[in-house]
Design brief:
The chain is an all-alpha fold. 74% of the residues lie in helices and 0% in strands. It has helices at residues 2-15, 17-20, 22-32, 34-61, 72-80, 84-90, 96-101, 104-119, 123-143, 160-184. The longest helix has 28 residues, at 34-61.
Length: 190
């Protein structure tokens, strides 16, 4: 559990610099240069992600059950997950979905975390998904208090929403039909 928590602190901490210390982020980017800053940011984030993956895997080996959700909540989680991948793609494909949600990546993260919290009740799951949910809520709140950052997206196009929806549903189907089992070790449908 210690490795999981350390990974979350590193990964979400790096992603929280703009939330808690935007002036520090800007100063570091100015001092190092934009690309070296992004390289450092990426290296730290990847290190945190590796720790999260390793820590989550280790914690699952000795599970601590906090609560046992009823079986029907697993079905609710499967349904809640339907829009997650389309929203994830819409974050980088300017269109109506992106304009409507304004921050589709954060909406996707909150939905993903909530769905998993409903379906699982082990301590490692609550720590992992609860941390991501709390971070996404904090980041969304902070966006109203800081200037918007430029996000690289693909060019606007009239088919971007279709690409996001169809591509996202295709990715979700792949996860349901085996990719989640292969990567995470848990079959969402059984």
């Amino acid at each position: 559990m210690t490795i999981l928590i350390a990974g979350l602190v590193v990964f979400l901490g790096m992603h929280s610099i703009a939330i808690v210390a935007p002036a520090l982020r800007n100063a570091l980017a100015a001092r190092l240069g934009e690309w070296p800053w992004k390289g450092l940011y990426s290296l730290v984030a990847v290190a945190g992600f590796v720790l999260v993956v390793e820590g989550f895997g280790a914690a699952r080996g000795a599970p601590v059950v906090l609560y046992a959700p009823p079986g029907w909540l697993r079905g609710v989680a499967v349904v809640l997950m339907v829009p997650v991948f389309p929203m994830l793609l819409a974050a980088y494909l300017p269109g109506r979905i992106q304009a409507t949600l304004r921050h589709p990546l954060l909406v996707a993260t909150k939905t993903w975390a909530l769905a998993h919290l409903l379906a699982t009740g082990r301590l490692a799951d609550v720590v992992l998904f609860g941390a991501f949910l709390a971070w996404a809520v904090a980041d969304r709140i902070s966006l109203g208090r800081r200037p918007p950052a430029a996000v690289r997206t693909l060019p606007p196009g009239r088919y971007n929403d279709w690409i996001a929806v169809l591509g996202g549903l295709g990715l979700y189907a792949a996860f349901l039909l085996g990719l989640h089992q292969r990567l995470i070790g848990i079959a969402p449908l059984g």
